[in-house]
C-alpha cells in the first residue's frame, strides 16, 4: 500500500516530475523557466532536494496538472469523488441492501488506501463495520471498528466516537454487557471531564448505552442516560441520530410505565426514519412498538407489529436482528395460546443464536421453551432449557433476567420435590435481584454541562 509518507518522499515526487515532463516533451530548462534553473529541476528529479510548495505549484502549472496530483499522485478531485461514493454506499445500507453497500465500501476502502486518504479509509471501514452488525457477523464488526480507531489514532476523541459506539454495540450483541457499558462509560467520562462537549458524540453514546444498562438491570442509569439524551437532541444536526435516540429512550419510558410517552417517542422516530428512508431502523421501530404493546398486554397488536418487523428485517437479510425479533414474537404467540407455533419458531431460530451471538435472546428462547415444556408437564426438558438459559445470562450479567429465571427454576425444583435445589435457586435469584445494578462497579461517568 502506498502511504502518504512514501508519496511525499523527494525521490517519489522527483520520478513523478520527470515522468510527466518526458511525456509532455519538455526540457528541464523549459520546465524551470522563468522562476527556477535547469540545475534545480535536475536535482529535484534526482530526489536530492525536497521541493517547496511554491516550486511544486510552479512545476504543476507548467506540466498542466493540479498541485495535489503532482504532490501526492492523486487525480484532482479524487477525494471529493470518494466522498460522494461513500454517501452512496451509506444510502444503500440505509435501504437494507447490505451486500451491495459492503461492496461499495470495500471498493472505496481499496482506493482510499492506494492514495493514502485516511479519513476516507476510516469512513469506509466504519461502513463495513455497520454492514457486519446488520448481518450479525460480530467478530468482523469488532475488527472493522478497531481498524477505524487505529486509522484515527491521532484524531480528537469525538471523531473516534462512532467507531467506539460500533465496538460497544458489537460487544453488547455478543452478550458482553459489562464490557459494552465500560466502553460507553469510559468514553463519556473522558469527553465530559476534558470539556469535549460535542453534542452528536455525546448523543450517540448516551443513546447507545441505554440498552446494555436496561439489560444489566441498571435502570436508574438508563433513565439518567435517556434524560441527558433528550436534553442533547435539540443541539444535534443529525436527524438519524435523533430518531435513534427517540427509539432507545422509549424503552426506559416503557419500563417506567409511561406508555403514552413511549408511543409518542416511537412515532417521532418512525416519521424521521420514513423521511430519511432508513428501512432497517424503521423495522426496529416496529419491533419496539411490538414490545410496547406486549408490555401493555395488547398481544394482538404486539403480534402484528413484531411480524411486520420480522418481515422487513428478513427481507434485508439482517439475520441476527430477525432471530431476535422472532424470539419476542414467540413470547407473544405463547401468551396468545399459540404455544406450538411459538416452540417451532424458537427451535428454528436457536441455530442462529449462541453465547457469542445474541446471547440474551438465546437465553430468552431457552427460557420460553422451558415454560412451554412445563405447561406440557415435561419437567426434564424444562429444567434443561432453564439451565442453559441460566448459563447464558450469567455470562452476560443480565441481572433482572437472571433473578426471574432463578425464580422459575426454583419453582420447578420445588414442584418436583427438590427442596434444597429450589432454595439454592431462590438464593441465587435474590442475590442478583439485590445487586446494586452498577456496571463498571465505579461511579457514574461525568455529565455534560446541561
Features:
single chain, about 450 residues, mainly alpha, 434 Repressor (Amino-terminal Domain), Serine Threonine Protein Phosphatase 5, Tetratricopeptide repeat, 24 helices, elongated, disordered N terminus, DNA binding, Helix-turn-helix domain-containing protein
**Name given to the CATH homologous superfamily of the domain at 318-432:** Tetratricopeptide repeat domain
The shape, in one word, is elongated
Query: Strand fraction band?
Result: under 5%
What is the CATH C level class of the domain at 318-432, in words?
Answer: Mainly Alpha
The residue ranges in which pLDDT falls below 50 over 5 or more consecutive positions are 1-7, 434-441
Q: Helical proportion?
A: over 70%
End-to-end separation in angstroms reads 46 Å
- The radius of gyration computed from the alpha-carbon positions, rounded to a whole number of angstroms, is 28 Å
**Named CATH topology of the domain at 318-432:** Serine Threonine Protein Phosphatase 5, Tetratricopeptide repeat
What would you call the structural class? mainly alpha
Largest sheet: none
How many helices in DSSP terms? 24
Strand tally: 0
Order of helices and strands: HHHHHHHHHHHHHHHHHHHHHHHH
Overall average pLDDT: 90
CATH architecture of the domain at 318-432: Alpha Horseshoe
Structure, briefly:
With 450 residues, the chain is mainly α. It is built from 24 helices and no strands. Belongs to the Rap family.
Question: Describe it for me?
Answer:
With 450 residues, the protein is mostly helical. Among the domains are: 10-76, Orthogonal Bundle (434 Repressor (Amino-terminal Domain)), CATH 1.10.260.40; 318-432, Serine Threonine Protein Phosphatase 5, Tetratricopeptide repeat, CATH 1.25.40. It is 77% helix and 0% strand. It contains 24 helices and no strands. The longest helix has 18 residues, at 118-135.
Amino acid at each position: 500500500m502506498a502511504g502518504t509518507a512514501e508519496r511525499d518522499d523527494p525521490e517519489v515526487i522527483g520520478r513523478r516530475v520527470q515522468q510527466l515532463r518526458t511525456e509532455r516533451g519538455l526540457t528541464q530548462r523549459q520546465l524551470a523557466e522563468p522562476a527556477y534553473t535547469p540545475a534545480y529541476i535536475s536535482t529535484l528529479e534526482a530526489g536530492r532536494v525536497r521541493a517547496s510548495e511554491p516550486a511544486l505549484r510552479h512545476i504543476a502549472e507548467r506540466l498542466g496538472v493540479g498541485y495535489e496530483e503532482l504532490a501526492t499522485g492523486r487525480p484532482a478531485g479524487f477525494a471529493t469523488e470518494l466522498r460522494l461514493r461513500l454517501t452512496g454506499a451509506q444510502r444503500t445500507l440505509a435501504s437494507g441492501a447490505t451486500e451491495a453497500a459492503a461492496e461499495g465500501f470495500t471498493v472505496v476502502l481499496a482506493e482510499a488506501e492506494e492514495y493514502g486518504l485516511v479519513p476516507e479509509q476510516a469512513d469506509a471501514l466504519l461502513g463495513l463495520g455497520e454492514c457486519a452488525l446488520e448481518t450479525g457477523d460480530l467478530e468482523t464488526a469488532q475488527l472493522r471498528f478497531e481498524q477505524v480507531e487505529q486509522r484515527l489514532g491521532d484524531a480528537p476523541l469525538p471523531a473516534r466516537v462512532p467507531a467506539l459506539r460500533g465496538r460497544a454495540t458489537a460487544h453488547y450483541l455478543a452478550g458482553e454487557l459489562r464490557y459494552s457499558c465500560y466502553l460507553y462509560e469510559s468514553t463519556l467520562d473522558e469527553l465530559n471531564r476534558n470539556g469535549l462537549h460535542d453534542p452528536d458524540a455525546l448523543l450517540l453514546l448516551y443513546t447507545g448505552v441505554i440498552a446494555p444498562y436496561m439489560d444489566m438491570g441498571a435502570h436508574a442509569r438508563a433513565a439518567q442516560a435517556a434524560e441527558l439524551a433528550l436534553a442533547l437532541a435539540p443541539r444535534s444536526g443529525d436527524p438519524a441520530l435523533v430518531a435513534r435516540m427517540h427509539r432507545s429512550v422509549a424503552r426506559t419510558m416503557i419500563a417506567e410505565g409511561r406508555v403514552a410517552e413511549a408511543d409518542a417517542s416511537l412515532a417521532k422516530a418512525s416519521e424521521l426514519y420514513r423521511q430519511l428512508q432508513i428501512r432497517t431502523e424503521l423495522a426496529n421501530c416496529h419491533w419496539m412498538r411490538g414490545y410496547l404493546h406486549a408490555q401493555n398486554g395488547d398481544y394482538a397488536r404486539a403480534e402484528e407489529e413484531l411480524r411486520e418487523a420480522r418481515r422487513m428485517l428478513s427481507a434485508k437479510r439482517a439475520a441476527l436482528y430477525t432471530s431476535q425479533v422472532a424470539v419476542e414474537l414467540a413470547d407473544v404467540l405463547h401468551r396468545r395460546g399459540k404455544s406450538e407455533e411459538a416452540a417451532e419458531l424458537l427451535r428454528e431460530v436457536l441455530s442462529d443464536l449462541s453465547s457469542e451471538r445474541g446471547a440474551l435472546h438465546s437465553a430468552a428462547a431457552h427460557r420460553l421453551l422451558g415454560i412451554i415444556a412445563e405447561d406440557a408437564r415435561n419437567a426434564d426438558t424444562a429444567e434443561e432449557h432453564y439451565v442453559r438459559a441460566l448459563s447464558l445470562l450469567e455470562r452476560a450479567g443480565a441481572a433482572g433476567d437472571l433473578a426471574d429465571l432463578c425464580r422459575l427454576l426454583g419453582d420447578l425444583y420445588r414442584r418436583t420435590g427438590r427442596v434444597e435445589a429450589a432454595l439454592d435457586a431462590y438464593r441465587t435469584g435474590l442475590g442478583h435481584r439485590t445487586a446494586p445494578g452498577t456496571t463498571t462497579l465505579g461511579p457514574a461517568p461525568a455529565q455534560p454541562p446541561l
